[in-house]
Amino acid sequence: MAKEPMRVLVTGAAGQIGYALVPMIARGIMLGADQPVILHMLDIPPAAEALNGVRMELVDAAFPLLKGVVATTDVVEACTGVNVAVMVGGFPRKEGMERKDVMSKNVSIYKAQASALEAHAAPNCKVLVVANPANTNALILKEFAPSIPEKNVTCLTRLDHNRALGQISERLNVQVSDVKNAVIWGNHSSTQYPDVNHATVKTSSGEKPVRELVADDAWLNGEFITTVQQRGAAIIKARKFSSALSAASSACDHIRDWVLGTPEGTFVSMGVYSDGSYGVPAGLIYSFPVTCSGGEWKIVQGMMLLIFQFLVPCLFVHHLWLICHGQLDGVVSSASFLLIPPFTHMRELGQWASGISFYCILQYNVPTYSAKIPEFKFSKLCDVLSCHCRPPDR
Ligand SMILES: NC(=O)c1ccc[n+]([C@@H]2O[C@H](COP(=O)([O-])OP(=O)(O)OC[C@H]3O[C@@H](n4cnc5c(N)ncnc54)[C@H](O)[C@@H]3O)[C@@H](O)[C@H]2O)c1
């Protein structure tokens, strides 16, 4: 028996990502080749004519799975009955702009759309926030839609995840479909940490660790990370517009895996509500490795190696506080994401820690440190860091 159509909302549908995304949804790339869809497209009145142009093209493309199109500038009409909401609408980042620069412009947009989704979307509607700053917009949406379950509000870091897989595939000259299990930790911004310590490549002699095959730690710890972190800016520089094709495709990957499940033995990166895993404060929207099954994501636990020091959670909390108090401009300073170097003695760790302003420890590298430093204990590490770190600047 044919499936009932699912209603998929795309906000900012007349924009660049929207234009790339809606045909992918209508072709079944997001929800499956046997899943009919009804597209709800929202944009603002100045873009109404362009939105109508997109609607006409959808009709002209005669997509067999597309059972209806709602193209509107009315947020309530757009949100009514939707099962999936992809929040793309917003002010785009232009060349030379940081994501935080566009944040204040997006706050009022997300308040209004959150209320409409809460009141009019289908029960259990899954929300994916794409518009930047994606983590913070998702948090704002959740704040203003308290009855939407935490688990249903996510943000897109799958593009960064896919970029990491793409870089590895180019470097090793292997098919990208044979590379898996990269992780994007943190924020969809230049402070994210692309991690390939658990990533593998399918070879004729079985799965091999990426680190072993690349055999170049300097590249993996340096150029690889900065390339992934700054890929969005490189694309803006080249195209004069932000990445649209790859963002749309990654949004489809995010929803497809969430709804239909991740393949056995594979995890992906999603910006999700932290439950306190890996020491990340609960309630922040943060990118973790997840597996999905039965329409639910689950954070992959117990990953080992590395202890992170970073300012990102601190900045999130401040972003939210500043938004609520209308004091955004000029306050958010740069964040950093450092790896604790491979110390061989607790004393060296103390010296290093004295230059740090805020830390959050992911209980992650303990086995390695325990093996290398005889007197190492996790609680002792916490003590050393607490003694030596300066308090947060704000
Ligand atoms: N998370 C990611 O990986 C990722 C990647 C690329 C881009 N982005 C972000 O996605 C967003 C969209 O990018 P784009 O290139 O499509 O931008 P765009 O400017 O081409 O399109 C944005 C669209 O949003 C519409 N819009 C503005 N305010 C709206 C509102 N209140 N309601 C509904 N629609 C509204 C605009 O009219 C426009 O059509 C940007 O914020 C961009 O930074 C995120």
From TrEMBL:
Listed InterPro entries: Lactate/malate_DH_C, Lactate/malate_DH_N, Lactate_DH/Glyco_Ohase_4_C, Malate_DH_AS, Malate_DH_NAD-dep_euk, Malate_DH_type2, NAD(P)-bd_dom_sf
EC number: 1.1.1.37
Alphabetical list of SUPFAM superfamilies matching this protein: LDH C-terminal domain-like, NAD(P)-binding Rossmann-fold domains
Annotated catalysed reactions: (S)-malate + NAD(+) = oxaloacetate + NADH + H(+)
Enzyme class: oxidoreductase
Keyword Nucleotide-binding among UniProt keywords: no
Pfam families: Ldh_1_C, Ldh_1_N
Positions of the Lactate/malate dehydrogenase C-terminal domain: 157-303
Lactate/malate dehydrogenase N-terminal domain ranges (all copies): 6-153
GO molecular function: L-malate dehydrogenase (NAD+) activity
Alphabetic keyword roster: NAD, Oxidoreductase, Tricarboxylic acid cycle
GO terms, biological process: tricarboxylic acid cycle
Protein family according to the UniProt entry: Belongs to the LDH/MDH superfamily. MDH type 2 family.
PANTHER family: MALATE DEHYDROGENASE
Protein name: Malate dehydrogenase
UniProt organism field: Urochloa decumbens
Source species taxonomy: Eukaryota, Viridiplantae, Streptophyta, Embryophyta, Tracheophyta
